[in-house]
Amino acid sequence: MDPPHTASASDSTSVELTLKRKSNDIGWTYCNLVDPSNLDKVQCIKCGKKMSGGIYRLKAHIAGIRGNVASCTKASKEERELCKNAINEAKLKKKQKMDEDRELRLGVNIINDGREDTIDKKTNYEIKASMTCFSSKEQMLQKNTFVDGLMMQVYEISDPFLKKEVDRTKSLLKSHEEEWKEKGCSIMTDGCSDRKRRIIMNLCVNSRLGTVFLSSKEFSDVSHTNEVIFEYVDQCIEEVGPDNVVQIVTDNAANNMGAAKLLKEKRSTIFWTSCGAHTIDLMLESIAKQERFKKVTDQAKSITIFLYAHHQVLSMMRAFTKKDIVRPGVTRFASAFLTLQSLNDSGTELKVFTPLIKVLRIADGDTKPSMGFLYGELIQAKEDIKISLSNLPKNYEPIIEVIDGRIKGRLDSSLHLTAYLLNPFYHYNNPLIQLHKDVVLGMMDCIDVMYPGDISVQDKILNEEFPIYREKRLIFGKPLVVKACSFNDAKFDPVSWWLTLGIITPTLQRLTVRILSLTTSSSGCERNWSAFEGDGDCETIRDLYDDDFESEEDEEIDLVNEVGDE
């Protein structure tokens, strides 16, 4: 009977040896493998707990390091210290190895000039930021392979770096939030389709400090109705603060105009205005369809297509002219007319568009807020167009009719008219604008919207403080003050003018600053989205459904007028 007993003991010893790893790691003193074929699954011989994660997790279990595994209840103090020291020694060795590798790479970096700490810190931050757009861990690691002297750790991107970026963003937003509260802001909307053809609506907040991305939402499976747009915008108004929002800026789509009506019913103190860049784009489009200009634009397009389709001809053209034909603009039709200008800068048919292109650049510009300039520059553009067409009514009337038709109900709101009147550049250079009925009534309506039912404030602005500004009394009449607003150059900013000189009319000053600090275009929101897309090739909703916008034009105008009349 002894031989069978001996065999059994031998088998037991064999199994035990199989479950033990031949390793000097102290962790194997306290565990066995659960399955010899699975080196990741171990069992603590002290308490019997089974766990995944291999020997490292077992040592954390014995050491009582919480976070990834429960502590062993039967390990002694000495055993805990042994495993804890083993873990710390392994970390130290790994760090030393990484430092050695880094020194080796720096040793062959021939462009290092000793500014390692300063340059690497900045570059390391920027590389990590750019790596967030990589789609996989492998791509990130490949990115790291080509950067000498920079150690990229995946955990830095997924946890510490992300937290730092969130904190940095919140810190940057503080100044913007203070600006919104003090001087007001605009919520800009833009609908677009990304590379995957998903319909997305983006919302940004604009103030004098710039444009900040606020929110983005996919609407691929939802009808883009008035109610849907309004509810989304209304949520963002709550987030920014209803008292901080002066206006919502959108393009001229019918559903946006319908949402404007819903906004007026709920939030009567917030304006809903049309995008100035889109409206001027529609002007250019309508003018291009007129018989006088259609032929020359079609011919120019044909020439341009031919040149850019034949690289040798294009190269010769660039070599001899030292110029390019295609000149990108704010919008598709702006680009078309800029291209025409490059073909023939002296042509009468092309000069007529220069004033509108100038206004378009103001509406879309980021150098200073455009609300105080848009209406006045449109008036000036019409005068410049008349001059370019020799002041002959038969030549300019069709164009002026298009411009006036697009302005009506879009760019002549009480907000635009009040900004025009309160910009000293226009008011002091042409005092007669205060006699225009539409402008005066527009200002009264604007004040009523911004201070509803507050007769005392309305009276103080209209009857006490505005006459001081209008008649150039006190400080407003000083030669230096008048000279400061005589020229509309890059240095002139009506908001700064009012902040400095409006101290004698504080209530009017606050109203004026909140109005003149506004934008007139939502194209900044479109640029913001293009930055997120990377290569800027997303299409706006009005590009995707351009025919629909054209066919619903009458409906759009009716809706705008309906909102304006209520």
From TrEMBL:
Occurrences of domain DUF659 (ranges): 154-303
Cross-referenced Pfam families: Dimer_Tnp_hAT, DUF659
Stored InterPro entries: DUF659, HATC_C_dom, RNaseH-like_sf
Domain HAT C-terminal dimerisation: 490-532
Coiled coil residues, start to end: none
Signal peptide annotation: none
Ranges that cross the membrane: none
SUPFAM superfamilies on file: Ribonuclease H-like
Example of a GO MF term: protein dimerization activity
Domain of life according to the entry: Eukaryota
Name by which UniProt lists this protein: BED-type domain-containing protein
